[in-house]
């Protein structure tokens, strides 16, 4: 397998593919922009109605709302699993209505996704599930053995590196899925109820990880029902109610808006430098407005890595990946 150019071999990508996605902030474009977007499944009612918003690069938002409001559907549009029934959706400054579908894999390489149902590969250990994005990117085993165990230890799974998903609890699987999504520091991170299966202490710890990732430049959207987390980490909210979206300020609390609260999370672990990699084992993402929300996504380890939603990529081919030392300096800051 040839290494990803952002790991030191620029000859492995064509100029056309390399230029597909601009770097964050290039030209001032938003990472995500929706204008009058609607989404329906088949001939049913609209799940999303007239959704309009922009996500600036390096922003952090909670996505809130009652069950059934359309949060997962909105996230699916942002990780390119579905297309809107109407309206305009732009990703990384590109109007998707004008982007050939064959360029979607390059866009997906800039997106990390934490799914509610985890989507781990059952035949791989926790370590190998998290290492999958790095291996797809062509990262050496030495780097993998350096970064992955540290991240898994930080999320409380140091004793489960070789465990397969079948013997892990729901909360443990969730932490493996989160580690896989963030290991390559994606340009956009989308997390669907990432704290739904963990206790409050672990939830706060994981939010520290997301917040630190955001400080390093990743745009973050977290769908959650956990009001305690929303109050503690005072970031702006995108609130969905009956398919309609409203932008809301952070919930009132004692700390400063957008601030990271004090606590005992400890230093955030070192993660790998940026690289293009598949963050999810989903190898044939669902697309099209008429896909049923209950349809099982196709998956499998033997599918082409270009077919999957990808994460952990700095889309600019000219952006030098952070060295290990730089990552350690940045991520070893105690977020508490």
Automatic annotation (TrEMBL):
Q: What are the BP-aspect GO terms?
A: cell division
Q: Which InterPro entries match?
A: AAA+_ATPase (IPR003593), ABC_transporter-like_ATP-bd (IPR003439), ABC_transporter-like_CS (IPR017871), ABC_transpr_LolD-like (IPR015854), MacB-like_ATP-bd (IPR017911), P-loop_NTPase (IPR027417)
Q: Keywords in alphabetical order, please.
A: ATP-binding, Cell cycle, Cell division, Nucleotide-binding, Transport
Name one molecular function that GO assigns to this entry. Answer: ATP hydrolysis activity
What's one GO-annotated cellular component?
plasma membrane
Q: Where is this region: Disordered?
A: 1-22, 249-336
**What region holds the ABC transporter domain?**
32-267
The Gly residues compositionally biased stretches are: 256-266
Do you know which Pfam families this protein is assigned to?
ABC_tran
Q: Where is the composition biased (Low complexity)?
A: 267-277
Its annotated function is as follows:
Part of the ABC transporter FtsEX involved in cellular division. Important for assembly or stability of the septal ring.
Q: Which family does it belong to?
A: Belongs to the ABC transporter superfamily.
Instruction: Output this protein's name.
Output: Cell division ATP-binding protein FtsE
């Amino acid at each position: 397998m040839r290494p990803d150019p952002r790991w030191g071999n620029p000859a492995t990508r064509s100029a056309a593919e390399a230029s597909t996605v601009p770097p964050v902030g290039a030209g001032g474009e938003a990472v995500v922009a929706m204008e009058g977007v609607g989404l329906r499944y088949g001939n049913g009612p609209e799940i999303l109605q007239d959704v309009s918003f922009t996500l600036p690069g390096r922003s952090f938002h909670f996505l809130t709302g009652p069950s059934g409001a359309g949060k997962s559907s909105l996230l699916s549009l942002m990780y390119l699993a579905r297309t809107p029934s109407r309206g305009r959706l732009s990703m990384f400054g590109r109007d998707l209505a004008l982007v050939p579908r064959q360029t979607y894999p390059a866009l997906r390489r800039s997106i990390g996704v934490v799914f509610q149902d985890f989507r781990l590969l059952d035949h791989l250990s926790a370590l190998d599930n998290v290492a999958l994005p790095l291996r797809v990117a062509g990262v050496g085993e030495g780097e993998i053995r350096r970064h992955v165990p540290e991240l898994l230890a930080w999320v409380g799974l140091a004793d489960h590196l070789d465990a397969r998903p079948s013997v892990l609890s729901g909360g443990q699987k969730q932490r493996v899925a989160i580690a896989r999504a963030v290991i390559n520091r994606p340009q956009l991170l989308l997390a669907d109820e990432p704290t739904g299966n963990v206790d409050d202490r672990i939830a706060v710890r994981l939010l520290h990880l997301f917040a630190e990732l955001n400080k390093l430049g990743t745009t973050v959207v977290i769908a959650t029902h956990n009001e305690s987390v929303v109050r503690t980490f005072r970031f702006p909210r995108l609130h969905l109610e009956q398919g309609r979206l409203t932008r809301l300020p952070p919930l009132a609390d004692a700390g400063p808006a957008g601030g990271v609260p004090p606590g005992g999370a400890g230093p955030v672990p070192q993660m790998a430098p940026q690289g293009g990699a598949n963050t999810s084992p989903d190898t044939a993402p669902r697309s099209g407005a008429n896909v049923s929300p209950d349809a099982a996504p196709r998956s499998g380890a033997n599918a082409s890595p270009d077919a999957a939603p990808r994460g952990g990529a700095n889309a600019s081919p000219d952006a030098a990946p952070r060295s290990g030392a730089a990552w350690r300096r940045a991520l070893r800051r105690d977020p508490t």
